[in-house]
Amino acid sequence: MEKLSSYISVLIPFFLLISVVLLDILIITGVLSEFYQDKDTVLAGIIAFWGAVLGGTITFLGVQYTLFNQRKMNYAEKIPEIVVNSWKIYKIVQFGANLKSYVKSYPEIDDVKKVEKFYDANELWASELSAKTSLQWYRLVDKYFTHLSDYHSYKKNNRIDEWHEKAEELALSSMELIDKYEKEYDEYGK
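The structure assignment produced for this chain is given below.
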């Protein structure tokens, strides 16, 4: 039903335009018939012109419809890969969310070095994968690795709890993205 109303809302202006054009043709034809003796030639020219305009409009609408459906089909083919990549990226983002409990369980580790090592090992490939997946993933991964790079300064300034809260927010955002893409996958799978 929603698709039908969106099509109707797009087609109504075109039908109004066509109605106005046809009305103009009738009025122009009436005016010209009063002034010109060769009415058939003038009428044929006007009809041909507006027929070309109408034909061009219909062709344009057909091309727009085809392009829209082609984009939709391309996205439907790509969505399984997006879902798989989303889960890979999610695992990376979980590192920050799980760091607090990890540090509590193993207080002897140097958490700053652990974060730096994780950053160095994962930032490049995770950024590339997220850029191939979607703009939303890329932005989230960029925020995440920027946040990881700030770990040392948060810890140094005794704001580590604030850092962990933000890391958990980013992990939650990544889960919301996964939910979004899995719903789209279900929708296109039908």
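Interim note for the steering committee: The chain has two domains: 2-70, 77-189. The mean pLDDT is 85.
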